[in-house]
Amino acid sequence: MSIGLIRAIIFGTAVLGVLNSNPAKGQNAAASEPDSYTANDRPPDPRLKADILVVVAHPDDETLVDAYLAREVYDEHKRVAVVFGTHGEGSINEVGPEQAMAMGNIREMEGRQAVGYLGITNVWFLTGRDTLSQNVLNSLGHWGHGSCLEQLVRIVRMTRPSVILTFLPDFTTGENHADHQAAGVLATEAFDLAGDLSAFSEQISPASNPDKNMSLTEGLRPWQPEKIYYFYNPTHDIFAGQGPQYSSKEISPSHRLSYGRIAVEMYAHHRTQGGDHLTRAIESNTVENSQDPYVQLATEDMKLIFGKSLVPSGVTDDVFAGVVPGGIPFQPAPGFTPVLASSPSVRIGDPWNYYHIFWQAHGLDHLASIVPTEVTVKVGGILAIPLIIENPLETAISVELSVQAPEGWKVEPAHAVSIAPHTRYLQRIQATAPETKVPGWQNFIVSAQSDSQNIGTVPVRVELSTGWVAPQ
After folding, report:
1. Last-in-domain residue among 254, 284, 309
2. Is the model's pTM score more than 0.85?
3. At 140, which CATH number?
4. CA-CA distance, 167 to 178, in Å (whole number)?
């Protein structure tokens, strides 16, 4: 007997039982719906409800918030769901020979095991592809921006979180993986779209045939999250006064271990990504004073950057301060309003320019003051400074570029360019880094002149690295 036939018999028996339980309806009830509620009347599935939705790029990225999640799950009794943007198939394997798609399969297993250590079982993977770059637009393009956003909006509507935790949508030095930035961009967009009736409306249209398993619309409810916070792993402190902070050394009352120690035990499941380092620290009882970078990463204090709150809350207040358990009405983001230039100008290009547009569109202008324009470059590598030159005039202009560069850098000459009327011209300044590491920030200033007048300057600071650095 087929599964479909079994379901039909069960469903038919259930309907008959409802009809027979109400004799007043008699035989005429056979052609009508059951007098119990239909699928469209049911409340959202309570098994999916989350207080916190964590949105990251790869399995093991959640390590940056594991100590905080341990606090919230074990001692504040919060429900947590996790979304991974990719399977991490582009990473290294510290355990076996498996690479590429096989590696992604292994990392999915490790990710589920790691968060499962806290009892987190609601875990989703988007269809993004691991992308080696520092430029968020590379990742968004490679992931399929629209498709992944549609998937994430669906997950927000299913899980109905009060709070979203995700990567900082900004370009900063450190572990500056474009996929991390992409996770933050998508999470922010989903925060602003999940409550919007006009966004992916097929998801919230009532199911047309809910009892026949033939619906193409999804019957979800719109949902407006209340707060969003960002985290990151930079090479310099950008967190002071920007959001709440939580100690990983604090002892969990329920488990009598530090939250950092619990995070180490979670991270140990990511064996392909250095998990064995943490296992050795646990077995040798050296977690508390370990100098191993993997252990130190897992046991760092939780430092968050305030994104925005649609309920009353201070920047450094607790993550759940002001949260309304039953949810809040939809509050649209401000959107992007272009400013028309009246005179020639120069500014930094993408991805930095993209972020200035993104922050304005999503009501995050305060993020612009946290990190200046900066980038990591490998010693001996190439720095590319993208520029946007605007000519809003009725006549063509000639623009000359000059570069103030640190000692030891080789800057390619920048030739004068002619820019047609009402044209946005894109230019790149390139410089080769020294072959040895120079400490401190390497500061560049690009200036543009037209008709003997300065039309703007673009400052960029660079951090040199001897380690692996993703391409710009």
Report:
1. 309
2. yes
3. 3.40.50.10320
4. 10
